[in-house]
Structure formats: structure tokens, C-alpha cells
Amino acid sequence: MPFLGISGMQYSGGSLAGARILLAEDSNVFTSMISKKLKELFDIDIEICRNFEELQLAYDKSAEPIRLAISNINLPGAEKGEALEYLIDLSIPTIVFTGTFQEGMRDELIAKDIVDYILKDNIFAVDLLAESICRFLTNHRHHVLIVDDSATARALLSSRLKRYNFRVSVAENGTKALEILKANRDIGLMVTDYNMPDIDGFELTRRIRASVGSHELRIIGVSSSTNRLLSARFLKAGGNDFILRPFIDEEFYCRVNQNLDTLLQIQSMRQIRLSA
């Protein structure tokens, strides 16, 4: 059945069955709600682990790779967060689903390179979790290009996007970016720095927009400049969004999602019009 997420995500690709997903959660209420929701929306059957021992056994019992784990921070037998540490040490992509969120915990979670965190403090918690799972399982259909002359910045953005399961290409300058775009027509989003030596972000965007519209490629500009007018100049050059550095992970991922959601919606509308 078609799925419309709280943030605006639309998915109608059918069953996502086949991916091995673990749920480390001891609450009967939440295990029941999550199991029912994922089965109903995406035909996903999850493996439930109600304590740390069951989580360890689930990993050991099968050679089939775990595609994604959803884990409470405090689990019986792992009251100090050992279950999350266990999953991270095994390099298993993990969404944290927790009712405990004290000051400083957010930074600790982000530092562990988790996929996402969902708080149990509202009635939409399970819906938000379902959307986060759906995004992770389908983000591989999106190809993102990062353009930045700083190797550090390219590595940082690339690692963030790969953590969310996107396919990523990188370019160290505008000339290389144009070559990659020409060779990879499936790229749907470009994240480009403004200040680059050969072709700056503005000029790169102008050149791309001469032949590629927003219905084919979304462009997000980034800059660490304090000049607030850069965003206006970038948007007038044909960009779709602009973020000032330093930005936090949640903001960056939200902007990426919003632009890709818009791209899919535009493409879907165009297909409907063409087939009418």
C-alpha cells in the first residue's frame, strides 16, 4: 500500500521484505506496535530480541547479514547501553528507539555514527520509526554528488550520506563535477561548496542549469561564510537550497530528504501528465 510519512516522504514501491531487521526492545506494547506497522506497510517481518542475550544469540545463529537494527538504549542485561555498543562494534546500521534522552545524550549518539534516533515521547513515535526505516532501506536508489575542494569536507559529507545508505560520488572541483554529472545521469542531488578555486558554486550551478532542470537534479549549496546574502545569490543562480556551516546532522539529513522527496514528487507528476 502507498506510504505517506509524517515528514512528507512518499513510498509506493511495494514490499520491502527480505531485509533482515532486528528489534532490540523489551516493551511488549512497542514490539507489538512496531511489528504490526512494518508488516502492514512494507511486508517486513522483524526479529525481536527482548534482552541482551537474545540479541547476541540472534547475531550468532545466522550467517545472513543484519541489514538494520532498531535498539533501545536500556535493554535487560544491558542497562548501561551495552546493546547499542555491541551493534556499533559489529558495524550494524542502527536506529536508536528510546524513551531516555538526557542532556548530552544526543551528542553521544551522533558520535557513534548511528543511522537515526527516534524518541518514544509522542504518539507518532512508531510512525516516525517506520519512516526512518523506509528511508534507510530505499535511500540506495538515490545517487548524490558532493563537490568540495576540501578533502576533509568531502570525507565528512560522504560518510554522513553513506551512513544513511545513499550512493555517493565526490568531486574536488567544478570541472570534475561536470564530468561526473555527464557520465552519471542518475544523480538526483548535488551538494556543492560555494568557495572553490576553478569554478565556484554559483557558476557551477549556472552551467548545470543551462541544460539540467530541477525536475532532474536538486542542488544544495553549502558555505561557512558569514555573508547571509550568499543564500539569495545561490537560489537566484538556480540552486534549490542553501545551508550555512557548521550544520548539525539532523538539519543536513532533513534538507537532503526534503529535496529528494520534492524531486520524486515532481517526477511522479510529470509521468502522470505524460501518460494522460
UniProtKB/TrEMBL annotation:
Source taxon at top rank: Bacteria
PROSITE patterns from the UniProt entry: RESPONSE_REGULATORY (PS50110)
Pfam name, any one: Response_reg
SMART domains xrefs: REC (SM00448)
Domain Response regulatory: 20-135, 143-260
InterPro entries the record matches: Bact_response_regulator (IPR050595), CheY-like_superfamily (IPR011006), Sig_transdc_resp-reg_receiver (IPR001789)
Keywords from the named record: Phosphoprotein, Transcription, Transcription regulation
Modified sites of kind 4-aspartylphosphate: 193
Protein name, per record: Response regulator
Organism for this UniProt entry: Rhizobium mayense
Lineage of producing organism: Bacteria, Pseudomonadati, Pseudomonadota, Alphaproteobacteria, Hyphomicrobiales
